Q: What sequence folds into this?
């Protein structure tokens, strides 16, 4: 899933502001206290935390049975009107993906065949197929798995360590350090009560002339065909001043996908927006 967020967030941005009323703040404070109490009773290893996470998300057997995943919905496009842009994302094992974002009868594409990536960005007046930049190719190779970084992490060549516990939006979470096969490190925060992911490190971005850390927050978990996954995702830069929100509205598991959709795009190729997830 992280691969999906990387693709979407490379195309859109938005500014968000939130306010909390006194009554809501009081309720949240009480929830924090209850969460801390529950978390304090548990002393788990990193492996135990991950086992519980995979179990509540549907189980290892169920996730291994997923060969393709098709997601569709809308993503905030930013700007003064903050227009919602429809998207379709198709992923297939081992590491293939295709993202389409639609805006004013134009379709932006990002395609990865497991080794090479291409993009088409008509929004910028670039009606041509461009290869991924070295940074985009590296990110695609690192985060290509459709089941996320924790499922079968050991088979993917990753190592995980428990750093400690931290509060994430008022809920205590296990902070895990994930060391990928290529040596890169990411942190994942797993809720101490539900054992669902609450947050994961994103790729740092340069904004306002500064390199800023980015985090992806997972919200609104729903279960589809026995698999539990977030349906609202928000990326927030360091300081919380800018964010993107993405809403997943349809999920299709093991829907057949044509091989040509993961090949180098042909500009005459029809969009798959006419074939939404079922």
A:
């Amino acid at each position: 899933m992280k691969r999906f967020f990387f693709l979407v967030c490379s195309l859109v941005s938005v500014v968000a502001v939130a306010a909390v009323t006194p009554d809501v703040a009081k309720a949240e404070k009480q929830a924090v206290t209850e969460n801390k109490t529950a978390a304090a009773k548990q002393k788990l290893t990193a492996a135990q935390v991950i086992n519980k996470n995979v179990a509540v998300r549907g189980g290892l057997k169920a996730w291994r049975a997923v060969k393709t995943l098709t997601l569709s919905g809308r993503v905030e496009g930013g700007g003064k009107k903050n227009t919602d842009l429809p998207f379709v994302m198709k992923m297939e094992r081992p590491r293939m993906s295709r993202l389409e974002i639609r805006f004013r009868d134009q379709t932006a594409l990002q395609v990865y065949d497991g080794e090479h990536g291409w993009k088409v960005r008509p929004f910028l007046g670039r009606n041509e197929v461009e290869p991924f930049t070295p940074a985009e190719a590296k990110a695609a190779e690192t985060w290509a798995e459709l089941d996320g970084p924790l499922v079968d992490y050991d088979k993917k060549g990753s190592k995980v360590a428990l750093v400690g516990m931290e509060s994430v939006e008022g809920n205590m979470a296990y902070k895990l350090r994930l060391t990928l096969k290529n040596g890169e490190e990411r942190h994942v925060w797993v809720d101490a009560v539900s054992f669902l992911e609450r947050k994961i490190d994103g790729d740092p971005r340069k904004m306002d002339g500064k390199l800023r850390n980015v985090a992806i927050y997972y919200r609104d978990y729903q279960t589809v065909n026995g698999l539990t996954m977030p349906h609202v995702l928000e990326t927030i830069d360091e300081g919380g001043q800018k964010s993107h929100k993405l809403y997943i509205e349809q999920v299709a598991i093991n829907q057949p996908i044509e091989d040509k959709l993961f090949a180098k795009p042909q500009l005459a190729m029809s969009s798959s927006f006419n074939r939404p997830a079922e």
Q: What stands out?
A: The two ends are 19 Å apart (CA to CA). The chain has a mean pLDDT of 82. The chain is about 20% helix and 40% strand.
